[in-house]
Amino acid sequence: MAAKEGKDYDMHIKLLMLGDTGVGKTCLLLRYAYDSFSPTFITTIGIDFKIKHVELDGLHVKLQIWDTAGQERFRTITVSYFKGAHGVALVYDVTDRDTFEAIRHWVKQIQEHAESNVSIVLIGNKCDKEQLRMVSRAEGEELAREINAPFFETSAKTNINVEDAFNKMAVMTKNSMMLQESTSRPSDGSLMVDDPNVRLTGSGKGGCC
Amino acid sequence: MTTTHSFPKNPSNPSITVPLTPPQPEVPAETPDISNLSLADDVDRDDDTFGSGSSDQSTLSNIDERALNRALQLFRDGEIEEEEYQKIVNYHEEYRRESDNLDYGDSSDSQDATNDSQDPPSTAPSSPRKNSLVNFFSLFPTRTDRSDSGVREEGLDDPRAVRAVRAASRAKERKSRMKQKVDAQRQAQIQADIQTWSETLKTWSNKSLSSPAVAQLCARGIPPKVRGDAWSKMIGNPLNITRDLWMIHEKRGSQMMEAARRRSTSGADHDQEEDTFISSPPPASSPTSSPASPPPPPPPSRSSHSRDHTVIDIDVDIPRTFPYLSFFHDGGEWEGRLRRLLATYCSYRPDIGYIQGMSFLAAMLLLSMDSYEAFLSLANLVNSPRYFSPSYSPMLSSSQVSLFNDSFKANLPLLHSHFKRHDVTHELFLIDWRLSVFCRILPLDTAVRIWDLFLREGETFFVKCSLGILKLLRSTESLSDTDTVLENISKIRVQGSPSDEGGSFCTPS
């Protein structure tokens, strides 16, 4: 996949941060995108986003990460961003069981509104607050197995696993996109075109009549 | 309150804040001539040496260097203006240039110095080297007396330097007089405004809102002393809320919050309540706003839709409401007031509940009013189609979107088409700006002024102000690609604005 003309990346991946309000979605994103942690708290009202450029297996990948408001009220807006997303970070707070319980509901939302092949990573944030922990690591792992997603316990505050979690998500998404791309192309490299009005004239020489 | 601000230009810093006060002039990097000198110990000697008529080039040069160092120090300490500092540096440069062409062995220099010392300062110009010395020392305001007298005694002055110093000091005096005058005028204006407001508020009626006099008063900024009353009157009380009603709901709100916390910690599932809650109509006693027509939300799938959960959201959002105003989240009285106010509202309008962004409105009102007034104002504000048409909700109605888009297109056509080209939708900024009425993105003092106008004019002012912010954004915008546009917008949102911590409005009265 060659760099597109005029673009400074080989691949453009859209990721989405989901989870209840206050689990630390914005803090995780700020840590990943800028390696910073703000001691003052930021509410996301509506939708926000950050860009991060990364190298993955020799490819220059541009990650566009959408940060969403966690409150149910904003669901109508955030749902409209589900469609274009290639990967989702599902975040809960290990010190708040409600946010963990809510993950199943979030998974339902994803199944309902997102693309079927979207990659999911489960993240239990605030793992630095060991004394306040209410969700064990084992429970997180079990849920992750259940929803078939890689699992990370992170701390945006003390920078534990943040990079790994996002990178894993990026790699998974990249691989799934590349796989999709290769399956949608015959081995000889010509394009598969769904449009019935367009016919392939010959192998390797895709063109329309 | 008259402070203007600019939006950050540095796109690489995620946590830029908007300074309330104009930035201090940046201290220029040290001039190469003096960067390696460390002559602090010589300062006293410097003074002694000065005026002795020494013609030793290196000594004179050192004095110059020291002078320049001293000037830099004064400038850094803020004792002299950038202009004055620059003047000193220029003199130094001039001296350097001229002294390069001088024969320092010439005894006439020391002769001149001796002669000059007996003459008044305004006599014939002396050599560049001496001029330079005089210039440096005479240009230090903190040493004015000493150096001036020294200069006059020694007669080493240069008319140009004297003129420059006098002009600078006159300019400074003028500036300070002007400032005093402006301050006095402002104070007088504020006093007069307070008087006018008091009279206006006594005879307040529905018509007052549209009177040109009130418009003018609001445009000048409502004095903090009467702001609470003025806001409260401008918002009005079409819901006919009474103190009794407030007391009932305040009690119920606290109970709701307690119950929600208990459930939350016990981990009880309260999904069952959901349906009954969703279908429950608003209290009959409260007139509802005109019916909302946003597309139906996706079916609720988890307990967070219940009122218990929106009450829990209050706890999460309190530390994030004006994070730089610590008294709202230090566990003290103000935090309690804010929490109670929001819980009271949840009890009063369970159909609306707590919506993220509302905590900013509540906090803003509490800064100017007592708890009852703040509740009355919050309930009426959130309910009023004049401010939030058709309702206070994350979903904007199509008429709102088209009002905004049409005004945007008409006023900032280039930016509008740029946004369109790069798929930058209004959702990325307008929802936030609207639900918090700019409290989250603007410094508090600026936001307060915006509110003075917003509460009088209503939603039209919201659109005007949004366009104003976008216009500022345009000026810092390279208009290159979607990311730049979006990131700039997103950065406007992230500002924590701690710079206005000392604002006059922020201190609880």
UniProtKB/TrEMBL annotation, chain A:
Query: Entry's InterPro entries?
Result: P-loop_NTPase, Small_GTP-bd, Small_GTPase, Small_GTPase_Rab
In the record, biological process GO terms are: protein transport
- One Pfam match, given by its short name, reads Ras
Q: What is this protein called?
A: Ras-related protein Rab-1
Report the GO molecular function annotations. Answer: GTP binding; GTPase activity
Keywords recorded for this protein, A-Z: GTP-binding, Lipoprotein, Nucleotide-binding, Prenylation, Protein transport, Transport
Please indicate if the UniProt record lists Nucleotide-binding as a keyword.
yes
Protein family: Belongs to the small GTPase superfamily. Rab family.
Q: Quote the function comment for this protein.
A: Protein transport. Probably involved in vesicular traffic from ER to Golgi.
Q: Which domain of life is it from?
A: Eukaryota
Q: Which NCBIfam families match?
A: small_GTP
From TrEMBL, chain B:
The segment annotated Disordered runs over 1-64, 91-132, 256-308
Residues folding into a coiled coil are none
The annotated regions of Basic and acidic residues compositional bias extend over 91-100
Q: Where is the composition biased (Polar residues)?
A: 1-18, 51-62, 107-132
Q: Which residue ranges does the record assign to the Rab-GAP TBC domain?
A: 221-458
Q: Which PROSITE patterns match?
A: TBC_RABGAP
**What is an example of a GO molecular function annotated in this UniProt entry?**
GTPase activator activity
Q: Which InterPro entries match?
A: Rab-GAP-TBC_dom (IPR000195), Rab-GAP_TBC_sf (IPR035969), Rab_GAP_TBC_domain (IPR050302)
- Pfam families, alphabetically? RabGAP-TBC (PF00566)
Q: Where is the composition biased (Pro residues)?
A: 292-301
- Regions crossing the membrane: none
Q: Protein name, please? A: Rab-GAP TBC domain-containing protein
Q: Which organism is it from?
A: Triparma columacea
